[in-house]
Design the sequence.
């Protein structure tokens, strides 16, 4: 790996991690008392789990994007894959402000449904150019699937 590729890898990871950090900051006080006051299903993990899980997932997303950028950014399939990746990253960044910031499990459900579809689209697009990159997103899809079920349960229990 040359210096340019190493910087690209670090940059891709940092962009993904920054989206997570910005999303958390945009959530504001909604995470505090409002969320604590919601009825929660038994499958709700403790709050401390989310930070480490998301940190690892954002890093894996960054590596996946870097694999596409490194080898396929000048191909039409690679450009489509990266565009779909950016779309899902934007939706990812919107979920916390929708759910926590707006204090709206319903709006969160809408965003997470769109996010889930965009992740599936990203995996399909990545698989066209890098199977490794697509597989790196599998844990992300699994976690967002779980989060979607949790979001739905929170929405149903707190209407």
Sequence:
């Amino acid at each position: 790996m040359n210096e340019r590729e190493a910087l690209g890898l670090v940059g891709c990871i940092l962009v993904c991690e920054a989206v997570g950090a910005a999303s958390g900051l945009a959530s504001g006080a909604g995470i505090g008392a409002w969320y604590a006051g919601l009825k929660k299903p038994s499958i709700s993990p403790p709050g401390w789990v989310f930070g480490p899980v998301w940190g690892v997932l954002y890093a894996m997303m960054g590596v996946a994007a870097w694999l596409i950028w490194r080898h396929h950014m000048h191909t039409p399939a690679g450009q489509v894959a990266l565009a779909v990746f950016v779309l899902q990253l934007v939706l990812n960044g919107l979920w916390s402000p929708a759910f926590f910031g707006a204090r709206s499990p319903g709006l969160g459900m809408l965003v997470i449904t769109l996010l889930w579809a965009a992740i599936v689209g990203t995996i399909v697009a990545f698989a066209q150019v890098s199977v490794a990159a697509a597989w790196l997103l599998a844990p992300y899809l699994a976690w967002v699937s779980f989060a979607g079920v949790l979001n739905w349960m929170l929405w149903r229990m707190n209407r």
